[in-house]
Amino acid sequence: MVPQDTQVVHQNWLSPPQNGFKVNYDTVVEKSPNRGAIAVVIRNHLSHILDWHSGVISHLLEALPLEAMACREALLFISDKQLHGVTVEGDSNTLVDVINNNAPPTAIFSLVHDIIEICKLLNYILFSFVKREGNKVVHCLAQKAPRDSSFCINPMIQNHFVRSLSI
């Protein structure tokens, strides 16, 4: 079930409760070469990065649909990992409000519908807004994907890059 309230807005990344998980998602738009990127990072209550995903989306340059795609990817990732009691956090206050109030604009209606349907299959999901400063690890990951063609296909490069990121 999708919660009706968001957490308190915070600027820095905060750890989830003990034995909990936080999944952050973000996007970037690269007008040249005309593509966007999405990224998802899973961390535990010790702030350790447990897993991540990034990908390039060609010919989609609108921020809100990209954010919705990244959020949906985050939920699919949570489902795949069979995580429970997860805070899903992004830096689009608009999207968090849309999800929590189930009132999507037409441009992202089907994506929000997917998000809500996936949430029904998961055990306790909380959506939260964080300012960009608190979302910088996943933002760096999203920035790297469209700028380095070998990044998305080479797990060793990804691993080295992700492990070099600080909180």
In total, the number of domains comes to: 1
**What is the H/E string?**
EEEHEHHEHH
Number of strands: 5
Q: What is the overall silhouette?
A: globular
Highlighted features:
5 strands; 167 residues; 5-stranded mixed beta sheet; alpha/beta; Nucleotidyltransferase, domain 5
Quick description:
With 167 residues, the protein is an alpha/beta fold.
Account of the protein in words:
Strands 3-2-1-4-5 form a five-stranded mixed sheet, sandwiched between helices. With 167 residues, the protein is an alpha/beta fold. The chain has helices spanning 63-81, 93-101, 109-121, 136-147, 155-164; strands spanning 21-30, 35-44, 49-58, 86-90, 125-129. It has five helices and five strands, in the order βββαβααβαα. It has one domain: Ribonuclease H-like superfamily/Ribonuclease H (Nucleotidyltransferase, domain 5), CATH 3.30.420. A hairpin with a 4-residue loop joins strand 2 and strand 3.
Layout of secondary structure:
Elements: E1 21-30, E2 35-44, E3 49-58, H1 63-81, E4 86-90, H2 93-101, H3 109-121, E5 125-129, H4 136-147, H5 155-164
Parallel strand pairs: 1-4, 4-5
Antiparallel strand pairs: 1-2, 2-3
